[in-house]
Design brief:
Length: 131
């Protein structure tokens, strides 16, 4: 049991080191044209903070986990238990399953898809009549 926990913590620490190295990579200066493209980009999904125990009912949902090791992981909740949870990371992160011990979880958010744009909704084209 303790050997599994040590291996899990070692894996999380290794991922944190790899992620922090990528965060410090030099970024090229953005031009005005690039800035306008970013402003026109669609809204990113947002998350709703939930209590750890609420995750029992969120298996299969996409979540964001902030850890006490200063990492943020986003993926699909595959397994919830009181001692820890398991995420299926996306293809950009190798499509691997990552186990996160509960004692390292700082915050958990359930990802909410952005709402539909008002301009994208049809107006007055329905066949139903109002009485």
């Amino acid at each position: 049991m303790t050997q599994h926990r040590i291996l899990t913590l070692a894996a999380i620490a290794a991922l944190a080191v790899a992620a922090s190295g990528a965060a410090f990579a030099a970024k090229p200066a953005a031009s005005k044209h690039a800035a306008s493209k970013q402003a026109a980009a669609p809204a990113q999904p947002t998350g709703q903070l939930v209590e750890y125990t609420e995750l029992e009912h969120k298996v299969g949902s996409e979540i964001i986990v902030e850890t006490t090791l200063h990492t943020v992981r986003r993926g699909t909740l595959v397994k919830y238990t009181n001692p820890g949870l398991t995420l299926q990371l996306g293809p950009e992160n190798g499509s691997v399953e990552l186990s996160i011990p509960r004692e390292t979880v700082r915050n958990v958010s359930v990802v909410l898809a952005p709402g539909p744009d008002a301009a994208a909704q049809p107006t007055g084209t329905g066949s139903a009549e109002k009485n």
